[in-house]
UniProtKB/TrEMBL annotation:
Origin species: Dichanthelium oligosanthes
Name of the protein described by the UniProt record: Protein trichome birefringence-like 14
Keyword Zinc part of the UniProt annotation: no
Keywords linked to the UniProt accession: Golgi apparatus, Membrane, Signal-anchor, Transferase, Transmembrane, Transmembrane helix
Membrane protein topology class: Single-pass type II membrane protein
GO cellular component terms, semicolon-separated: Golgi membrane
Family statement: Belongs to the PC-esterase family. TBL subfamily.
Keyword Cell membrane attributed: no
């Protein structure tokens, strides 16, 4: 633009010079014609140069956006060729709109040399030894070097700093069984980069998560990141149902497991959570119920042996529907909260179960395929439970089913007893992907 001003000044000078000789040219008609030709030629030359210059400027990346932002009163962020706030907002909205209808469970596992997201050797502060396969006898770790890519969806970069920034002044709660605890430990390792983090505060006491006298461990854990005021917690509830002691005076106490009542911890603290992830599934069997002395209750009454709810699959389905509808009513009062029901994590026992010689010895990634193409979850009860509610489905079942090589298998400390773990996962590992899908949706 300075160049244009300079040309205009030159033009004015020539016009003034012509004006000063007005009397002289009036007396000489030929000289007058010469001046007119000169002025017209000069004007045409300047106009051509201006047009060429304008075209060059228009080719500069970001020039049109810069002009638009200057017109709108932008603070100049786009002057370096970067999109201004309006442009960034449009991009964010476009991405949000594109991902709003994304089926994150439909996609493909792809190799990625940037994985895993943390070191299994270094994240000792948060990882349980029984799940840290890098500290076991296992020798093959190729299962760590994959990520999930949903079809037609943009996945945000998942790092600890990005997660903490997004969850600033917020609380993420996991409530569920040992697979939920694995997801919790995975998130702690990702949030800290797997590094020792003495600045992270133990705030379990705020949620009653303290070890009771004689207990092996507390019912859960809660940790706060001071820099962003982000809290991540886990509460152990294998069935998501309220447990009520029935005979406290006996040496062995039985418990009423109320299928239609949410676990007491949720009723007490749900208003403290911004993001909540629920899971249940693997404790709904007679062995677990008998071992824990759980007795089925519904509508405040014992479930009789002849009742349809005596079937534990039906009992579980009632709990899933009950918790989804209770959470839906809570969301009506707290619309900013996001609640997810995570689908069941698949088991991969072959030739038996955990206590009958079942194994899962495959170590070759994606031996059974790498892609999920179906539109609906293979965890039909969970998908049915959230239908018609504001509770979202965190669908990880079919994706995880492709990764049988990621289990702890015979690498655990219990392997010498002949027991293989084909239920839980090595960490780093598949639960990291569950958290990546969660991050994409919060």
């Amino acid at each position: 633009m300075e160049w244009i001003d300079e040309q205009q000044m030159k033009t004015k000078a020539m016009i003034n010079e012509a004006s000063s000789d007005e009397d002289d040219t009036a007396r000489h008609p030929l000289r007058t014609c010469s001046y007119l030709v000169f002025l017209v030629s000069a004007f045409i030359s300047i106009l051509k140069s201006y047009i060429v210059s304008k075209r060059k400027l228009l080719k500069v990346p970001g020039f049109l956006q810069q002009q638009e932002q200057e017109h709108l009163g932008d603070d100049g962020a786009s002057l370096a060729g970067l999109p201004g706030p309006a442009s960034r907002s449009h991009t964010h909205k476009s991405r949000g709109k594109a991902n709003k209808d994304c089926n994150y469970a439909k996609g493909k596992w792809v190799a990625d040399d940037k994985r895993p997201l943390y070191s299994g050797n270094e994240c000792k502060q948060w990882l349980s030894k029984m799940w840290a396969c890098r500290m076991m006898r296992r020798a093959d770790f190729s299962y760590e070097n994959y990520r999930w890519q949903p079809h037609g969806c943009e996945m945000p970069e998942f790092t600890g700093p990005n997660f903490l920034e997004r969850m600033q002044n917020q609380t993420l709660a996991f409530v569920g069984d040992s697979l939920g605890r694995q997801q919790f430990q995975s998130m702690m390792c990702i949030a800290t980069g797997g590094k020792y983090s003495p600045e992270v505060e133990d705030v379990g006491w705020k949620y009653g998560l303290v070890k009771a006298p004689g207990a092996l461990r507390p019912d859960g854990w809660a940790y706060r990141f001071p820099a962003t005021n982000t809290t991540i917690l886990f509460y152990w509830s294998a069935t998501l149902s309220e447990l009520e002691p029935l005979n406290t005076e006996h040496a062995v106490t039985s418990y009423a497991l109320h299928l239609d009542r949410p676990v007491t911890f949720l009723k007490k603290y749900v208003n403290s959570f911004d993001v909540l992830v629920l899971n249940t599934g693997h404790h709904w069997n007679r062995g677990k119920f008998n071992g824990n002395h759980w007795q089925l209750y519904a509508d405040g009454k014992p479930v009789g042996n002849g009742s349809r709810l005596a079937d534990l699959n039906r009992a579980k389905n009632l709990t899933l529907h009950s918790i989804a509808r209770w959470m839906d009513s809570e969301l009506a009062r707290h619309p900013q909260m996001k609640v997810f029901l995570r689908t069941i994590s698949p088991r991969h026992f072959v030739n038996g179960d955990w206590n009958t010689g079942g194994t899962c010895g495959n170590t070759v990634p994606l031996s059974n395929g790498s892609e999920v193409l179906q539109d609906h979850s293979i965890d039909i009860p969970a998908e049915s439970a959230v239908k018609g509610t504001q509770v979202k489905l965190l669908d990880i079942t079919a994706i995880s089913k492709l990764r049988d090589e990621g289990h702890i298998s015979n690498s655990s400390f219990k392997a010498f007893t002949g027991i293989n773990d084909c239920l839980h996962w090595c960490l780093p590992g598949i639960p990291d992907m569950w958290n990546e899908l969660l991050f994409a949706q919060i």
